[in-house]
Amino acid sequence: MKASLKSLAINGGPKVKNTPFTRGARYGETEMEQIREVFRNGSLSYWSKFKVKSFCEKVKEYFKCQYCAGGSSGSAVIHAAVAALEIPPGYEVISSPITDVGSLIGILYQNLIPVFADVDPYSYNITAESIRKRITNRTKAIIVVHLAGNPCEMDEIIALAQQYNIPVIEDCAQAYNGIYKGKKVGTIGNIGCFSLNESKHISCGDGGFAITNDEELYYKIHNYLDKYYDRHQRGCRMHHLAPCYRLSELQYAVAFAQLDKIDAITTARRRNAELLTDKIKHNQAIVVPKVHPHSQSSFWFYMFRVKPEKINCSLSDLVEALQAEGISAVTGYIPRPIYMEKMFAEKAFFPGGIWPAEIISSRTYDYGRGLCPTAEEVLSSSIRIPISEFYSKQDMEDMATAINKVLNVYQNKKYFGGS
Ligand SMILES: Cc1ncc(COP(=O)(O)O)c(C=O)c1O
After folding, report:
1. Which ranges of 101-168 does DSSP label H, i.e. alpha helix?
2. Ligand 1 site, CB within 6 A
């Protein structure tokens, strides 16, 4: 029997998801005990080197890396990582057009120029090929973003970066335990940056940390997170301008306990996402997200693409129909590539219409539609579905049923243009 428009919940048909999604508590007694220890220790400042030390030790053990520096957010540690590269103002940093602005804040505050490489149409990540097209003699860093936890093709990117002697920062805010050829993302480039904000795989409300195996970079990142004060007595007090991005002991305490949960959370999310992929990948109107066979995504969210030529309605019609079926779907990840936001399009980064980085560069940089056509196409043809480690098998099956139901109805040409 063919699915009819009347069968959709949005048109009064039976709703697919009638039971609530399974939920769970993210924080509990283990976090509380860590907080109690901080109070017993008597200081809430990271300067007491109590929880911050044990947090960084545990991070180093988990990632098998040599250095870890904590800060007040993912954006803060990315800023400190960019600053630590000590690139003179006016030079270029390549990054992704599909990301949170937190990947780019540090570039702009360091008076550098963000340059956008286009993305792969199915993984939504920037590629070595797209980065190569953007490299100039002014390129001084690359920030790759492992979107939704899906690792970028790092071997190719690192080979390219080495060819041009350009450092690579990995933005792993969404990518805890993303695995690329057996390596954890964040340990492949020169610096890996993570976010601990409330929405991420693990959290302490707000926070972040950077990891590296480069001793000099570590000290510089640390300096840039704390006013460039000479906290390690290395004779570099206030050598440069640096913000104050410290995190309190209370947050390190929560983050310390959360670190133990990364593997369970990412394994559950992966299992849930794979279940969904299995059940929707045969749908003629859908392209499921591409994860390379040598990679493992940690699925911070799940975003699939819709083939516009197979569907006789708009993306928002699909999303509204899915929502009516009880699935909290949204269009795209961000509404449009980040360079199409007003701040970029009008280069309104600073008040008064003055963008010091561009003036210093003696060049003109323009942002707007057409810069990265694939990124634009991806975001205008994608539907994002939340993934949670708490969702049950039934939750995932209901999601798949709803997606197939809605997509099948709107694929049915019989109903083109009406009911
Ligand atoms: C890819 C990416 N980079 C950077 C950030 C910034 O992290 P935070 O919100 O902790 O500053 C986020 C946060 O949403 C992110 O998703």
Report:
1. 105-109, 128-134, 154-164
2. 73-75, 99-100, 102-103, 145, 171, 173-174, 195, 197, 208
Give percent helix, percent strand, percent coil of the chain, each to the nearest 5.
40, 15, 45
Residue 417 predicted with pLDDT over 50: no
Tell the burial category of 25 from Cβ atoms under 10 Å away from its Cβ (0-12, 13-18, 19+). exposed
Q: CA 337: distance to chain centroid?
A: 14
Average pLDDT over residues 335-361: 97
Question: Is residue 326 within 8 Å of residue 394, measured between CB atoms?
Answer: no
- Cα dihedral 203, 328, 344, 134 sign: positive
What's the 171 CA to ligand 1 centre distance in angstroms? 8
Decide: 151 and 185 in contact? Cβ < 8 Å.
yes
Record: fold of 29-260: Aspartate Aminotransferase; domain 2 (3.40.640)
**Residue 126 per-residue DSSP state:** B
Instruction: Kindly state the tokens that stand for 298.
Output: 């940690």
How far is residue 295's CA from residue 176's CA, in Å, rounded to a whole number?
13
Domain-by-domain residue ranges, the chain? 5-24+262-334+376-415, 29-260
For residues 295 and 153, what is the distance between their CA atoms, to the nearest angstrom? Answer: 9
pLDDT reported for residue 129: 98
Q: Which of 325, 274, 301 is nearest to 383 (CA)?
A: 301
Going by CA atoms, what residue is nearest to atom 5 of ligand 1? 102
Would you say residue 412 has pLDDT above 80? no
How much is the pTM? Answer: 0.97
Q: Do 232 and 29 meet the contact criterion of CB atoms below 8 Å apart?
A: no
pLDDT at 413: 57
Which fold is adopted by the domain 5-24+262-334+376-415? Aspartate Aminotransferase, domain 1 (3.90.1150)
Q: Which amino acid is at 212?
A: T
Q: How far is the centre of ligand 1, averaged over its atoms, from the C-alpha of 7 (Å)?
A: 40
Within 206-249, strands assigned E span 208-212
Q: Give the long-range contacts of residues 289-295, CB within 8 A, separation 24 or more.
A: 289/122, 289/123, 289/124, 289/148, 289/150, 290/120, 290/122, 290/123, 290/150, 291/123, 291/150, 292/123, 292/151, 292/153, 294/180, 294/181, 295/150, 295/151, 295/178, 295/179, 295/180, 295/181
